[in-house]
């Protein structure tokens, strides 16, 4: 299936179950996964921004963002800023 076909099926099933605005689950997952991988909350969850991290923490941050990006089905780390903050 193409993305749009799968999206329509997903939307129909969630609507039939009385659910809506499910994209928030991706944000919650990304933020929880970030904490698991780094040991601290993401900027959107009250954690430090990249500028406040040590060099070692910045490397951990970058690695976590790449991992989460792949897990969410994206191919670039920049998209994680939407879910995690900068």
Describe the structure.
There is one protein chain. With 86 residues, the chain is mainly alpha-helical. The longest helix has 17 residues. The chain is elongated and about 45 Å long. The protein starts with a helix and ends with a helix.
Shape, per Cα inertia axes: elongated
Number of helices: 4
Rounded mean pLDDT score: 89
Strand content range: under 5%
Distance between the termini: 34 Å
Q: Structural class, from secondary structure content?
A: mainly alpha
- The helix content is 55-70%
Radius of gyration: 15 Å
Low-confidence stretches: none
What is the succession of H and E elements? HHHH
Major sheet description: none
The number of E-state strands comes to 0
Entry keywords:
86 residues, single chain, mainly alpha
Give a short overview.
With 86 residues, the chain is mainly alpha-helical. It is built from 4 helices and no strands.
Q: Any chance you could write out the topology, listing elements then pairs?
A:
Blueprint: H1 3-16, H2 23-38, H3 55-71, H4 80-84
Helix pairs in contact: 2-3
């Amino acid at each position: 299936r193409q993305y749009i076909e799968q999206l329509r099926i997903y939307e129909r099933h969630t609507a039939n179950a009385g659910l809506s605005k499910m994209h928030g689950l991706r944000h919650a997952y990304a933020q929880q996964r970030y904490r698991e991988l780094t040991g601290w909350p993401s900027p959107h969850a009250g954690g430090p921004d990249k500028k406040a991290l040590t060099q070692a923490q910045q490397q951990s941050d970058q690695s976590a963002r790449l991992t989460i990006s792949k897990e969410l089905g994206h191919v670039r780390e920049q998209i994680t800023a939407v879910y995690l903050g900068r």
